[in-house]
Structure formats: structure tokens, C-alpha cells
Amino acid sequence: MTVRPVSTEDIPALTRVHVDAWRETYTGIVPQSFLDSLTYENREARWQRILAEPRPDDINFVAEVDGQVVGFSSGGRERQYDGEFTGELYALYLLKSAQGRGLGRRLFEAVVEHLVSKSYSNMLIWVLRDNPTVKFYEHMGGTKVREQEIGLGGEKLPEWGYGWSNLTEVKP
After folding, report:
1. Which band of pLDDT confidence, cut at 50, 70 and 90, is reported for residue 167?
2. Which of 7, 9, 38, 106 has a Cα-to-Cα distance from 44 of 20 to 30 A?
3. Is residue 42 classed as helix, strand or coil in its secondary structure?
């Protein structure tokens, strides 16, 4: 099991994990029409853009098991100009078959270490309230600090923002 920075060669595997993890995690939470609309082709194009034109301080990591990409995490500068939080964990997805092995923690810690190396002292992540892994962020020391709604598939879904006010205190 390894966690390493993403390379362009990872795009097909990232695409598969991104779409499959959404379908595994959000069935029954997000409108099925939205999940059905997710395509590997669209996600692949998105990953190509992300990696071709990275924003300053952004980072992406993959988790591998036996040479197969099974998850990823992304982070960088907070995107909504929150005012309190300067760093953001954009995404952390892990296929269900790879959960429970510590890879989620390692993907999380990789982004935290990157943010600290770029002098970010705090971090925020937005998570759908009904995401079954929401407790993971609480276990990692996050505190619910925000609420908002996000539109997906024609519906408004509640999202919670979890914050870490001091990244140097995040314990591995």
C-alpha cells in the first residue's frame, strides 16, 4: 500500500476511482439521475485539465494497493474565500474494497503535510451531510464549522464544512 503524488499516467485510474467511488458512496443520497450522468469520459477530461493547469499550492495524491489505484486525495488553497480557513481538502475518495486499511488516513495526512509545507495553518473540507464516511473527518479531529446547500441533479443537498484550526496539531 502506497500513497504518492499523482502523475499524468494515473488519469485513467483516477477517472475510474472518481466515478466508481461516487457511485458506491452516494447511491441513495444523491439523485440517481446525477450518478447515472457521471461518465468516465467527462471525468477523464476534468483530470486532464486539473493536471495540465494546476493552481498554485494544489496537490493530488493517489493510493495504490498491489499497483492498482484505489483512491485519491486533493487539496490546496481554500476556494470560496472563507475568511477563516486558508487551506482546503478538496476531495478524498477511496473505493469501498480498499477502506479499513488506513489508506484514507494516509491520503488525508499527505494533503495536511503538503499544506503545512506551503505555510497553511488551517484547513476546511465540505462533505455531504449524509455521506456515510462523515465520521472519518470527526475522527481525524475535524470540527463541524459550516453548513450550506449544494445543487446536484436538480436537488439541494445539505453539506457540512469541517475545519481544523491548527494543522500542526493533526495527529498521524
Report:
1. very high
2. 106
3. helix
Using CA atoms, how far apart are residues 58 and 115, in angstroms rounded to an integer? 9
SS3 assignment, position 37: helix
Report the candidate in 120, 121, 141, 138 with the shortest Cα–Cα distance to residue 129: 138
Contact 64, 2 (CB under 8 A): yes
**Per residue in 42-72, pLDDT tens?**
999 999 999 998 888 999 999 999 999 999 9
Q: How far is CA 72 from the centre of its chain?
A: 7
Place of cell 495540465: 52
> Cell match 484547513: residue?
123
Q: How many other C-beta atoms lie within 10 A of the C-beta of residue 30?
A: 21
Measured distance CA(86)–CA(118) in Å, rounded:
11
Looking at this protein, which amino acid is placed at residue 170? V
Count Cβ atoms within 10 A of the Cβ of residue 118 and give its class: 0-12 exposed, 13-18 middle, 19 or more buried.
middle
Chain CA centroid to CA 75, Å: 7
Per-residue pLDDT tens over the stretch 10-26 = 999 999 999 999 999 99
Global pTM reads 0.93
User: With contact defined as beta carbons under 8 Å apart, do 34 and 150 qualify?
Assistant: no
| 169 — pLDDT class (breaks 50, 70, 90) | confident
